[in-house]
TrEMBL record:
Catalyzes the ATP-dependent amination of UTP to CTP with either L-glutamine or ammonia as the source of nitrogen. This is CTP synthase. Residues 2-270 form the CTP synthase N-terminal domain. SUPFAM superfamilies: Class I glutamine amidotransferase-like, P-loop containing nucleoside triphosphate hydrolases. The keyword Nucleotide-binding applies. Its EC number is 6.3.4.2.
Length: 576
């Protein structure tokens, strides 16, 4: 097993996740099987109870693991299916060690950071790195390990020490460290001192970088590269220039052009790994598809404006998977994407809105949009604005995609304005509502006391109902009998109201195995009015877009019929 560790210095949020994902994707172009592990040095067990405004979105895996958003990047770029164990947190590690201590596994010894905690980290990495993550079912060849946070922070100290020891456990030829650093531009001059200081700190902790990935707004000057190489004790070819590019999808090709993979192959002796001609062909085909995708980016046949009506728009990483799914679908449809960010509270009634300018700007964005998307979320804030956006899309024949909460608010809107349930709402927002007015109800099996890991989580099946061959969403899914998608919710549409909805044209075309729990609805006689209780954005891939998003973008761009006719042939991910 080969390990590529990606660490970061100077500042957080420097782009380690994109670099780690891009490195894994490029190693796949050689025909290698890759996997990835993210280390998050926070005390939480997982990201499930963290506010999106605190840490960005919570990404959900097939097994129901609620993890850091970087695991979404790994899955999208590398086309792998990870598990909750691929996300290591301080909380998980301490809980694991304390559990062993309580069982007496340490035979009475004093339990310490070194060696007990650091050994537990190393054991965890080695165990999880060997878990198959793709359709071959084979053990990966290379594991990308991203160390979250910034080297030097007190929180990451045990993990840094564990990785220092780990390089000797696995051997030099199996361990490579890529350190991501910042090169700021001050008054037009590229400054190397922050990188020099970061590498000095790294070395003082016992880790020597094999490559330094320098993040900079502009392309690095050759003298800057040579200066970093000289003062950081590496060769110039080991300094990678990661300057700003058109999109993050161009980063792998930027790294490839600087022969990063050639260096890693040499450093890790990858030529000794036995690869079949089929593996090599798959890798070459992946690279060709990726190059084709990036070459056509910006040379679009159409343009489309999507109003994203959310409640966490101040931190757009809260909707990272949604954004990426929109991008994947727009690239597939050769459509230039423009996202119009709309804070849901700004849409609420003018008489209650303290900022009239924001109110009118928000409604201008909604009315100008070719499609309206309402994503997931929790709590009552902004939901009346979301309901108004859903009403606009329904009445104006504007394509609509609702996800989780987006399905629930659209159903509430329909109940109020079509079924005549004037005070209809969700039990989440108004628990005191009489049962007849509860359009959305608490799922009976959900734990109401504990918040962490207690929702309906992970991959679950959805079955298309009888006589739903007409449904556009079913056609977009390739006329499947059923689909499997990832869930994250505590509330559902009131099963007692489903028949009344369908009599008025809102059809719950996809349901769970019981036939009573709503998974997908579609409004008949509308260009595209679709919502899902699950989160289709979690399974969208760069070269294999999410089907509901693909249909939504195609409908919004006016190319849905050509898409369904095969003009934009959906190639899936079988050959990735």
């Amino acid at each position: 097993m080969k390990y590529v560790v990606v660490s970061g210095g100077v500042i957080s949020g420097i782009g380690k996740g994109v670099l780690a994902s891009s490195t894994g994707m490029l190693l796949k172009t050689l025909g290698l099987k890759t996997t990835s592990i993210k280390i998050d040095p926070y005390m939480n067990i997982d990201a499930g109870t963290m506010s999106p405004l605190e840490h960005g979105e919570c990404f959900v895996l097939d097994d129901g693991g609620e993890t850091d958003l970087d695991l979404g990047n790994y899955e999208r770029y590398m086309n792998v299916t990870l598990t909750k164990d691929h996300n290591i947190t301080t909380g998980k590690i301490y809980s694991h060690v304390i559990s062993k201590e309580r069982k007496g596994d340490y035979l009475g010894k004093t339990v310490q950071i070194v060696p007990h905690l650091t050994n537990a980290i190393q054991d965890w990495i080695e165990r999880v790195a060997r878990v198959p993550v793709d359709d071959t079912g084979e053990v990966p060849d290379v594991c990308i390990v991203e160390l979250g946070g910034t080297v030097g922070d007190i929180e990451s100290a045990p993990f840094v020490e564990a990785l220092r020891q780990f390089q000797f456990r696995v051997g030099k030829e199996n361990f490579c460290l890529v350190h991501v650093s910042l090169v700021p531009v001050i008054h037009g001059e590229q400054k190397t001192k922050p990188t020099q200081a970061a590498i000095k700190d790294l070395r003082s902790l016992g880790l020597n970088p094999d490559m330094i990935a320098c993040r900079c707004a502009k392309e690095l000057d050759q003298p800057t590269i040579e200066k970093i190489a000289m003062f950081c004790h590496v060769g110039p070819r080991q300094v990678v220039n990661v300057h700003d590019v058109e999109t993050t999808y161009h980063v792998p090709l930027l790294l490839l052009s600087q022969k990063m993979i050639a260096y890693l192959s040499e450093r890790l002796e990858l030529e000794k790994l036995q690869l079949t001609s089929k593996d090599q062909h798959r890798g070459q085909h992946l690279l060709a598809k990726w190059k084709n995708m990036t070459d056509t980016f910006g040379h679009s046949d159409h343009s489309v404006k999507i109003a994203l009506v959310g409640k966490y728009t101040n931190l757009r990483d809260s909707y990272l998977s949604v954004i990426k799914a929109l991008e994947h679908s727009s690239m597939k449809c050769r459509t230039k994407l423009e996202i119009l960010w709309v804070e849901a509270t700004d849409l609420e009634f003018e008489s209650q809105n303290t900022d009239k300018t924001k109110f009118h700007e928000a409604w201008k964005n909604v009315s100008d949009a070719d499609g309206i998307l309402v994503p997931g979320g929790f709590g009552s804030r902004g939901t009346e604005g979301m309901i108004l956006a859903a009403k606009w899309a329904r009445e104006s024949n504007v394509p609509y995609l609702g996800i989780c909460l987006g399905l629930q608010v659209a159903t509430i809107e329909f109940a109020r304005n079509v079924l005549g349930i004037k005070d209809g709402n969700s039990a989440e927002f108004h628990p005191e509502l009489p049962e007849g007015k509860q359009v959305v109800v608490y799922m009976p099996e959900i734990d109401k006391e504990n918040m962490g890991g207690t929702m309906r989580l992970g991959l679950r099946p959805t079955y298309f109902q009888k006589d739903t061959e007409w449904a556009t969403i079913r056609k977009v899914y390739g006329n499947s009998q059923s689909v499997e998608e990832r869930h994250r919710h505590r509330y559902e549409i009131n099963p007692t109201l489903l028949q009344r909805f369908e009599e008025k044209g809102l059809h719950f075309v996809g349901r769970d195995e019981s036939g009573s729990r709503c998974e997908i609805f579609e409004l008949k006689d509308h260009p595209y009015y679709v919502a899902t209780q699950y989160h289709p954005e979690y399974t969208s891939k760069v070269l294999g877009p999410s089907r509901p998003f693909l249909g939504f973008i195609a409908a919004s761009a006016g190319v849905l019929d050509p898409l369904l006719e095969g003009k934009y042939e959906y190639q899936g991910t079988a050959d990735f």
